Description:
Helices cover 22% and strands 32% of the residues. The protein has a single domain (6-267), classed as Nitrilase/N-carbamoyl-D-aminoacid amidohydrolase (4-Layer Sandwich). The protein is an alpha+beta fold.
Amino acid sequence: MSNSSSDSVPTATGHSSPILTVCGVQMDVAFRQPDVNLVRVREQAAAAVGQGARLVVFPECALTGYCFETLSDARAGSLTAESPEIISLIQISRDLGVALMVGTAFAESDGTLRNAVLTFDRGLWIDTYFKVHLPFMGLDRFVLPGNVVHQPIEIDGTRVGIHICYEGGFPEVSRCLTLAGADLIVLPTNWPPGSGVSCRVIPSCRALENRVYFMAVNRVGTEGKFTFIGNSSWCQPSGAEMGRLAPDAEGLLIARVETALARQKHLVIEPGVYEINRIADRHPELYQAVVATVR
């Protein structure tokens, strides 16, 4: 197998299937200092490319920080499409020949505030996702939710779905991403103390439920009243955890995503005796309660 960042392997049908090398960057974030954070993003992206990464994923609000205490503070600390840091990310992706997913507090052209993950690839801004499910804390107290589940984007033949932090606790989101074709689901997050169960359970559970790769990318360091708990991890479609970083140190989490494995939803353990398909074996007609509006 080649060590290049985007390989392919033969499948049972004889066709090649992509392999994507992905890096999650667990980093500290300087609150309301996007220029400082941009320098770290550039350094860590270059280090990730040096380890073969074709896609580099950063934590939630990696450019701006998260723990805003007032609306005016959040508004002043948000970036726009014209911010020099955003323009620089486009250039970094071009210079490194890499795809970058970077979280930020973001102000739209009409002033609407969002919790966003922006994706750039080889000098193009290719995707913007706005967090839909919002807890009442930090930045999320002051932003409007997005109104669509992310549609996976394709990076060298691998389809990647995005959701943010709190949304990992909503299994419907990962299932929708899977049904839309995601091979890999990434969760840029800011897990604080008290989220230990989430960081241990959610990645494996969502990977297993959907037969997809799953990567959670958390931050470390202290911001406001919170000291973030790291523990970034990635799992195979079986749910098996393949890598985890420390709770209190920066680091790079390297994953190899074999697209064919994520697309193999029908598992034949013993033909005609023991077979499962977590997608085809569903009964959506029985799940109306899942989408009922309850307040």
